[in-house]
Amino acid sequence: MDHTREGSSYRNRAPSPMFAANAVLIASFGAHAERAPTGDLPNRAGRRKMRSNCRATNDFAAAASIARRGARDPGMIDATAALIVADVQYSFMPGGSLAVPGGDEVVPIINALAKRFANVVLTQDWHPPGHGSFASSHPGAQPFDTAVLPYGAQILWPDHCVQGSEGARLHRNLDIPHAQLVLRKGYHKDVDSYSAFIEADGITRTGLASYLRERGIGSVYVCGLATDFCVAWTALDARKLGFAATVIEDACRAIDTQGSLASAWERMRSAGVARVRSTELH
Ligand code: VGL
Ligand code: ZN
Predict the structure, then answer these.
(1) Cβ burial, residue 240 (10 Å; 0-12/13-18/19+)
(2) What is the pLDDT of residue 227?
(3) Atom of ligand 1 nearest to the CA of 228
(4) Range of the domain at 39
(5) Contacts from 138-145 at CB under 8 Å and sequence distance 24+?
(6) Are 154 and 274 contained in the same domain?
(7) Ligand 1 mean position to 68 CA, how many Å?
(8) How confident is the model at residue 27, as a pLDDT?
(9) Are residues 267 and 137 in the same domain?
(10) What is the biggest distance separating any 2 CA atoms in the chain, rounded to whole angstroms?
C-alpha cells in the first residue's frame, strides 16, 4: 500500500497510553492508525465517511487530523467535503461576452452556501488571448459553431475570460474570504478546460485531485457557472477520479446550447453525480 510520508511517520509513533480506551476509534481507522486522535470526535456516520475517504485518498494522516478538529458545528457540511465554486466571472455575467442567463443570481446563493463549508475552492476560466476555444481564432467560424480540434469536438465561444482582463475577474460581490484555493484553468492555448480536474484533451491534469486528496477531502459539491459546462465536467471528472460528487442546482445557471443542459444532467445522473437544492443540504 502506498503511504504518504506523513502517513508513515504517524503510523510509526509509539502507541499512546490511551490505546485501550480508544479501541473503538482505532478500529474505525483500520490497522494503519495506531494512535487515536484526541478531542471531540465525529459521530459514527462521520467516521464511516472518513474511513471511505481515507480509502479513496490513501491519506491517513489527513483524515486523522480532520478527526482531531472535532465534531462539526450545526449547519456545517462535514470537514472532508469541499465546495467548488466554478467560474463566477464577469464574462459569464449578464452584459459579459459569454453571458449566462441569470448568471449574477448565483452570487448571493453561493455566498450563503460557502459559509457552511470549511473547505472552498474557487475556479477561474483563464484563457490566453487567441485561445483555441475562441471562434475568433478560427477563420470563418462563428461563436457556438462546433470545430474539430486535435483532441475532439470543441464548441467555439466568443472571446471570454482572457487572462488579466475585466471579464476574467471574479464577481466583486462574491464574499468567501475563507476560500483556500483559486484554481485557474484553460490557460494552455490549444486546449480548453471546462473541468477543474482534467483538460479537454482528457489527459492533462490541473493538480486539483492531488490537492484535495492531500487534504483528506473525499467529496465535492459543485456550484457556479455554467451548469452544462464547467460545473458538469468538473462533477463528472470528480466521479472519474474517485470522489463523491454533488451538484447544487439552484446555485448554478446554464448556457444551454445545442441541448447541452439536458445531456449534461443525463451524463451526470448516469455517472452517479447527486443533484440537490441548497435547502436540502445537511
Ligand atoms: C465555460 C464555456 C467556455 C464554463 C468556460 O466555465 O462553463 N463555458 N468556457
Ligand atoms: Zn472558457
Answers:
(1) middle
(2) 98
(3) 7
(4) 11-56
(5) 144/257, 144/258
(6) yes
(7) 38
(8) 34
(9) yes
(10) 74
How far is 54 from 59, CA to CA, in rounded Å?
Answer: 6
Q: Is 78 in the pocket of ligand 1 (CB under 6 A)?
A: no
Residue 257: phi and psi, rounded to 5, are -120, 140
Using a CB cutoff of 5 Å, list residues around ligand 2, an ion. 125
pLDDT score for 72: 61
Is the CB of 125 within 6 Å of ligand 1? Answer: yes
What is this structure's pTM?
0.79
pLDDT reported for residue 44? 63
List of residues 6+ apart from 197 with CB closer than 8 A = 205, 206, 208, 209, 234, 237, 238, 240, 241
Task: Name the residues annotated as catalytic.
Answer: 87, 185, 230
**Measured from the CB, is residue 226 less than 6 Å from ligand 1?**
yes
Judge if 168 and 50 occupy the same domain.
no
Domain match, 148 and 248 both: yes
- In this prediction, residue 280 carries a pLDDT of 93
Nearest ligand 1 atom, CA 192: 9
Query: Which parts of the chain have pLDDT scores under 50?
Result: 1-41, 54, 70
Cα gap 245→56, rounded to integer Å: 13
With respect to residue 147, please indicate whether it lies within any of the assigned structural domains.
Answer: yes
Cβ(10) – ligand 1 distance below 6 Å:
no
